[in-house]
Design goal:
8 helices, Arc Repressor Mutant, subunit A, DNA-binding, Chorismate lyase, 28% helix, homodimer, alpha+beta, two-stranded antiparallel ribbon, 2 domains, 237 residues, globular
DNA sequence: TTGCATAACTTGTATATACAAGTTATGATA
DNA sequence: TATCATAACTTGTATATACAAGTTATGCAA
């Protein structure tokens, strides 16, 4: 079986993306969708809940599901978006170069952020990203070697996430992120085209797999003028 | 009736917050919880799904629900958190002062961001916030007067969200946000204690009610060293 | 002891039913 | 015509059942 509610979500999400159903319009009612997809109402409701969570629709008791204005802003949409996905959605020239990919053993501070034993084999990866020919993003990654033993510079220059999910079948599940602004240090200034900027937007994130193992720690430094973060959030309370 | 799944969520969330159940431990199984709360498994599952969404637990097929490490970082946790809530969780001295609260009619640019008719009555609000005696946040709000007719400087100095939700019974439902870094202008420098900083982190957000009406537009400028954004995100794809 | 099938758990998906709660259009009544 | 109750929709909550899929411990067999 192939997850009906996911399939229904995909169909409806695409119809909204392609504006087959326009913003402000109502989706067909749950009963109609139940008929259309030859399923049960609960299954339809699961699909609709996903749409709601991802900002496609707003459900209104008694009325129906209204299609929301789409963010034309072609950006991160919070969540876990890899740089490659991000770059694809921006129609700019993007270039990634690997500064360093080395195999080390966890110690002290490294070991602490990855919450692993002293001496655990890890990858230490540094990459620089160019947008329109300017070096504006500097990424440092720490990952457990055990889970991505065959990592190479070529893979790192493409997309780590693709490699993990499609090649290795690992399921990235959730992440914690922190965004702050910090002074650029000497190394930052050496790597990036800082112009007259003295500060960087720093995104630190810890990425976890389905089984809750902390797998990757990333520090991503962005030149302030090239940084933008877009978010859709529902009030949970 | 009083929404059982919400009640179950509240109980379990509190047990996790107070570390009655600690990180790394498993929750009781769905069947056990079903018995404990004298309900059905589906209802328990709805509660667990909420916990999962909000970063309290990770569900593992075949194993159970693991309690996740809690963010000790006492900060925004994405979502829609009002400044008052935020301030409460930080044990710093916080002070809000209203710079301006005036009643206007929408025109040109104002009208555009609020997506309303020319001439619609709106509130224009400007506030400055001090942390530990330093002026570090500058907020500008536009809101539809129709929905909050009795707004006063006193209310604005406290919490607009409390007023809207508790006094007026309005349901804030979702928001779109954008975070960028911009140069501070003359007005910013006049209002805030900028020190040697030249830039500000600007959070622009559009806040919507349950019926999808755009109700408030906010521009919140933060001195870079006092800005921090923390996020928990699940990979949806 | 070791290895392996299996049983007994766990969560995931799909379905059906019932009623509550909110919205809207209908139509009878004044 | 105008008003209002109501019927006919909509989504929300709660329950029950069945089976699929993943994990773990049991215990038999080699």
């Amino acid at each position: 079986m192939e997850k009906k509610f996911q399939a229904i979500y995909d169909v409806l999400a695409k119809e909204i993306q392609t504006e087959k159903i326009r913003a402000g319009q109502l989706l067909p009612s749950e009963n109609e969708l139940t008929e259309r997809f030859a399923t049960s109402r609960e299954t339809v409701r699961k699909a609709l809940q996903l749409l709601s969570q991802n900002g496609y629709i707003q459900k209104l008791q008694g009325k129906g599901s209204i299609v929301l204005e789409q963010d034309k802003l072609p950006l991160p949409v919070s969540g876990l978006t890899s740089f490659k996905e991000l770059a694809r959605s921006m129609s700019q020239k993007v270039e990634t170069s690997v500064i360093e990919l080395s195999s080390k053993e966890a110690h002290g501070c490294n070991q602490q952020v990855l919450q692993c034993e002293e001496g655990t084999p890890i990858w230490e990866l540094q990459r620089m990203r160019k947008l329109d020919g300017e070096a504006v993003i500097y990424d440092k990654d720490l990952l457990l070697k055990k889970l991505a033993p065959g990592l190479t510079k070529e893979i790192a220059a493409d997309s780590i996430y693709d490699y993990l999910e499609q090649e290795l079948g690992l399921s990235i599940s959730y992440a914690r992120k922190e965004v702050v602004v910090e002074e650029a240090d000497a190394k930052d200034k050496e790597i990036l085209d800082m112009g007259s900027y003295q500060q960087l937007v720093v995104v630190r994130s810890a990425v976890y797999l389905e089984d809750t193992t902390l797998f990757q720690y990333t520090e991503s430094k962005h030149r302030p003028d090239k940084f933008r973060f877009v978010d859709f959030a529902r009030r949970t309370k």
